[in-house]
């Protein structure tokens, strides 16, 4: 097997605060291979976006990263800030939820994509602008020559997100991190953008980390899934396996909490309570206070252990199937 | 079917559009000739993408903004004909729940003050019974009454939305309009609030208008659905029929675009919604419609049908619709495991 494009080994992120140290990411490990999509799924505060920012080296001031983050075998945490900046845009790129905040309102869309090409590929201004127009065509922006001369406010939300994707992929990065790339978009436009990311990935072999709260998006677009809860990985599996045979109680609850398009369920399986305060997390399994399967042992932290081949869950009670047998 | 609690007849509303110098450049017809009937005790969902006019329609129905034309009948009485004073008295019967529970509660009011305000405004209970009524309302929405003295910032998004619901229930309204009431919430919290809304609708006999872009939530709680596109209703009918056999090409595209149905499902709709300043002539969906014909540019298609209506010239000639359906998950094993979550809720009682 070739070297994975991205490898995280027991990554932790800490922030000093007035009330003590906050650890929004606590021992996260996963890897992504070229041309594959790994989805990181979880609710607000689970640490999925902080993980993305840690990979990119874009954490807010004060954030400290522990563990290891390797891009194509190179340890990113050992690099100087300048070296890391050189990797961003060229080797690794990121698309954010709200494209308006990541585009500069004072420059045209084409100029911004061209800038990335000049910086990372050393193209002349004219060649870079021509390449930017070609990228616009490839992400199927209608009238690419005209749109390249438009300012961000003149573009619709879906069009801006296409510009961001054109910019992110212009330099053929090894890794694309998409953080809720379609959450701000309407459903018909969301479908177009996600299809576009898939198509680009197939074409360029870019590895994609897709950060989302939407299990439907995960099902349609991910090869592998990491489910995060309160800063830790609850479950990790191939996408098809996760949906067919979920193992962690949190995943099981989440799947039941989404109303289904064909209807049927009289009542949604809701997970009671709220996400724990990360300044003061419960000991052991962080999901235990909300978990209907919790036992005394859950006061100790369960390891992320293999339940079936290639399918891991951090739960003392996995596999839960024995419970079903007892109940039957 | 019982008499309609709310009926809209040919309601329209335009907003002026101005350029950077403040000159009028025309008008957006945000809502353009909408007629709807909401029977007492039913749940109607209005769905559509941003800019389709669904939120404007909700505000028009409560006369929070004034319509340009049409009738808004509440229990048969046209709200547009009421004086300001009469309207204020009528407002007791209709409440609105907003999307953002962080913006809709006054940060300087405790929960008790926020929930008591409508009680006092409409003189619902004597002052002496106010605290008790607030406590009842809070436990009705699944909050411990001891929380009444706390401030909004001390609560999570889901709890705040419960407070907003308690406040909406305080005046004992007949109609509640929820404008994306669960869209800002995380999945697990959203499920809690959806379950709560369903319980309240059933137990209090509420009439509920749900404005939402989330088709899963709509499928789950609505009796009827109206689909809007660029200010007009393009399809309306019983929820199971609209989802099971959509008749308008836009409804079909909307359903097909919902993620989670597997790759093979979605024929993608091209392009964005056109600008509502200069909407396409005839059928407004024709510029994105795979079945459009020359007729669609010339004539506005009328709503056709009896209980399940659609506004499409060619609705009889479309190929059979793909039925919106999530890919199968987990099967019986997952359903049985999920039952543990429901059982636990019942064991613990409902107070969060």
- Average pLDDT, all residues of chain B: 90
**Going by CATH, what is the homologous superfamily of the largest domain in chain A?**
P-loop containing nucleotide triphosphate hydrolases
Enter the CATH topology name of the largest domain in chain A: Rossmann fold
User: Any idea what the CATH superfamily of the domain at 4-228 in chain B is called?
Assistant: P-loop containing nucleotide triphosphate hydrolases
Largest interface: A-B, 57 and 64 residues
Question: How many runs of DSSP E, i.e. beta strands of chain A?
Answer: 12
Q: State the distance separating the first and last CA atoms of chain B.
A: 37 Å
Radius of gyration of chain A: 21 Å
* Secondary structure tally, helices of chain A: 12
Radius of gyration of chain B: 22 Å
The largest beta-sheet of chain B arranges its strands as 6-7-8-3-9-10-11
CATH hierarchy class name of the largest domain in chain A? Alpha Beta
Work out the number of β strands of chain B: 11
Low-confidence segments of chain A, ≥5 residues, pLDDT <50? none
Largest sheet of chain A: 8 strands, mixed
Oligomeric form: heterodimer
